[in-house]
Design a protein that fits this description.
Blueprint: E1 14-18, H1 23-40, E2 43-49, H2 50-59, E3 68-73, H3 79-84, H4 91-98, H5 102-112, E4 116-120, H6 124-133, E5 137-141, H7 145-151, H8 154-159, H9 200-213, E6 218-221, H10 225-235, E7 242-244, H11 248-255, H12 274-280, E8 287-291, E9 298-299, H13 300-313, E10 317-320, E11 326-327, H14 335-343, E12 353-356, H15 361-365, E13 370-375, H16 379-388, E14 392-394, H17 401-411, E15 415-417, H18 424-437, H19 439-457, H20 462-475
Parallel strand pairs: 1-2, 1-4, 2-3, 4-5, 5-6, 6-7, 8-10, 8-13, 9-11, 10-12, 13-14, 14-15
Helix pairs in contact: 1-11, 5-6, 7-10, 13-18
The structure holds uridine-5'-diphosphate.
Length: about 475
């Protein structure tokens, strides 16, 4: 029997969901759509790109709630991608895939005439169409609140000439002009698009998308009051209607009883579960789980340094190495080649490591053997680690990850930030610090935060209540 928040019954609203077509965006949007169907009795139309639609169909498990359906937008993904059945993993391809989607989305929304649209915070075509057709629109920013707040100050930083960061800038110079983050952020903690060498169109894209979000009547975030209360209140000065409903995977498994915490909700890749058996054979809290998400790629040199650092740390490790995790000199994916080279080295005890192409990450983080997470600080990975109470070593590369990693280390103190370094001795030292030296202190904070996260998604908790508020808000649009 499902426990459901108490929300007055009224005619079912129909919401069109428009995620940005990357793994880290599709997943939380998918969970939100399911929750609104399960709890609010809503109708949901989940609009994916054709490519992601095909991928998602292969990983869907269990029944979808009544009222949930898919539609897809044509994209420009090359056919060989379809054959590879892999998710898109270069940022350029991602943006290209949606470049011409607006007319089709407009046609589709005109036909559906929904109660409202929930569009990803970087899918301004959703806001454009909503405004043109006079349909209410709510933004779902799948980043942290702290990063969303930083993006709203990007223009000021440009005016102050802090951004774009000059090549010879002191990266440790404090950023003092973002309210609430004084004493926390340094130049190197700003989103990666602020860095020297970022093509101006990319920085402009984020400026434009952030401004565009202001047209939304409300903001949804996959975070929770206990983690980001102060940042959420600051954002509420821009969006009086704000709904922090995270961690969404925790909320979903709490509310929908048949939905295990470990369900692959909105995953675009098939998971290799063989690592679970390997984890079963490892001592409690001994393993460091290594995953850099769906987009981050390492150079061959970086990969080899991480490998050696992990081996030298003496800790067992489970590493997600996608086929496109390593860039060759000519940008040809070469993970397989590099890995087989490393496997040729005889000195290593291979029972101490396990490598998979894609793991059931939420389940891995919840496994008793896992004691640390070496992560790229993508926001989903971060909240998954927070809910599981697993401390992190952060190695951010793209976009919001630079901000998240600083928050993990210096605001919430549940991990260590290793940004901008990757030599083997730093990797070894940082992993040892997390797993041995500062273990008690960091583990204590991580376990406490996990308890707070669980409380926030339980009945009466802030995320649970915010979901109820969101349902009432959308019903009021009918
Ligand atoms: N993920 C997974 N298996 C893996 C690696 C990642 O299921 O082996 C999932 C992970 O649980 C998270 C998502 O992929 O939900 C990655 O999102 P995130 O925001 O952390 O990073 P991104 O891929 O957007 O950089």
């Amino acid at each position: 029997m499902e426990r459901q928040p108490t929300v007055a019954q009224a005619p079912a609203p129909h919401v069109v969901f428009l995620p940005f077509p990357a793994q880290g965006h599709v997943k939380p949007m998918f969970m939100l759509a399911k929750l609104l169907c399960h709890v609010g009795g809503f109708q949901a139309t989940f609009v994916n790109t054709e490519h992601n639609h095909a991928l998602l169909q292969r990983t869907l498990a269990g029944d979808l709630p009544p009222g949930f359906r898919f539609l897809s937008l044509p994209d420009a993904v090359p056919h060989d991608r379809e054959q590879q059945q892999s998710s898109i993993s270069t940022v350029r391809e991602l943006f290209n895939s949606i470049r011409n989607s607006k007319p089709e989305f407009r046609r589709l929304v005109t036909e559906l005439s929904p109660t409202c649209i929930i569009a990803d915070g970087i899918m301004s075509l959703g806001f454009d169409v909503a405004v043109e057709l006079g349909i209410p629109v709510i933004a779902f920013r799948t980043f942290s609140a702290v990063c969303a707040w930083v993006y709203f100050h990007l223009r000021d930083l440009i005016e102050q000439r802090m951004v774009p960061i000059p090549a010879d800038a002191d990266m440790d110079e404090p950023i003092t002009s973002i309210p609430g983050l004084e004493g926390i952020l340094r130049r190197r903690d700003l989103p990666s698009v602020c860095r020297h060498g970022t093509p101006p169109p990319i920085l402009n894209f984020f400026l434009r998308e952030t401004e565009s979000m202001r047209r939304a009547s409300g903001l949804i975030l996959n975070t929770f009051d206990g983690l980001e209360g102060p940042m959420i209140s600051r954002l509420s000065t821009i969006f009086p209607q704000i709904f922090a409903v995270g961690p969404l995977h925790g909320l979903l498994s709490n509310i929908v009883k048949e939905e295990p915490l470990t369900a692959s909700n909105g995953g675009l890749k098939e998971e290799d579960r063989s690592c679970m058996t390997w984890l079963d054979s490892q001592p409690s809290r001994s393993v460091i789980f290594v995953s850099f998400g769906s987009l981050v790629a390492l150079t061959e040199a970086q990969f080899v340094e991480f490998w050696n650092g992990l081996v030298d740390s003496g800790k067992p490790f489970l590493w997600v190495v996608r086929s496109d995790s390593v860039l060759g000199e000519d940008e040809v994916p070469s993970s397989v080649k590099v890995l087989s080279g490393l496997k040729g080295e005889e000195a290593h005890d291979w029972s101490r490591c396990c490598v998979v192409d894609w793991a059931p990450q939420v389940e891995v983080l919840a496994h008793e053997a896992v004691g640390g997470f070496l992560t790229h600080s993508g926001w989903n990975s971060t909240v998954e680690s927070v809910l599981a109470g697993v401390p992190m070593v952060c190695w951010p590369r793209l976009s919001d990850q630079q901000v998240n990693s600083r928050a993990v280390s210096d605001m919430w103190r549940i991990g260590l930030d290793m940004k901008d370094t990757w030599d083997r001795s730093t990797v070894e030292k940082t992993v040892r610090e997390l797993m041995e030296g500062r273990r008690d202190e960091i583990m204590k904070a991580a376990v406490e935060m996990a308890g707070i996260a669980r409380g926030n998604v339980e009945e009466g908790g802030s995320s649970y209540c915010n979901l109820e508020k969101l349902i009432v808000y959308i019903r009021s649009m009918c």
